[in-house]
Amino acid sequence: MKQILRIKFLLVIITLQVFLGLQVSTALAQLRTPRFDDDIMIDLQDHRTPEQTGFFLFVSNHLMYGNVGVPAGLLAGGIITNDKAMRQNALYVAGSTAISAGLTEIIKHLVKRPRPFLQNIHITPVYRPGNYSFPSGHSSSSFATATALSMAYPKWYVILPAYLWAGSTAYSRMYLGVHYPTDVAAGAGLGAASALPLLFLKK
């Protein structure tokens, strides 16, 4: 009975997330790109250095090591030590990241916001990815992973590196010229919120 109630609760929360996300996304889609979005992107590209570019490319390109490695590590640790709570937390983290990825793709294809370098010829990206811009998938998934992990293990030595990684990943998308600040902010918020529906899995 409890399991059925949890599933119903999960479905209600996800439905509300989708509905609210679509409302906000539709409103944003009808607005012009804020001036500060363009200004920040141009300022960032004007201050790029080879060292910083290499670092943020590395962070951005290795996103999956965190998104997959964290729950995989928890699962492996839980199996090796026969720790049921750790295995359960692995499911919680993986599920939260999966929800954020699904919602991000739905919103991307509904809003269809072009990448910054397609909207403004003065913005030069480090590379030119495809797909749509809003919200940032890297920001969404990294913040979902960081938030779920921090809620499962609320210790400073878990929270601090988790959010440093997520914040660096989100920042890298702006630095590389492939996402606007509003894309990143929306992605981070969506990712953090994606850890809430599966809270009942956390041990």
Automatic annotation (TrEMBL):
Residue ranges of every copy of the Phosphatidic acid phosphatase type 2/haloperoxidase domain listed in the record: 89-199
Gene3D superfamilies the record matches: Phosphatidic acid phosphatase type 2/haloperoxidase (1.20.144.10)
Keywords: Cell membrane, Hydrolase, Membrane, Transmembrane, Transmembrane helix
Stored SUPFAM superfamilies: Acid phosphatase/Vanadium-dependent haloperoxidase (SSF48317)
Major subcellular site: membrane
Compartments in which it is found: Cell membrane
Transmembrane segments: 53-80, 156-178, 184-201
InterPro entries: PAP2/HPO, PAP2/HPO_sf
Membrane topology annotation: Multi-pass membrane protein
Signal peptide feature range: none
Name of the protein in its database record: Phosphatidic acid phosphatase type 2/haloperoxidase domain-containing protein
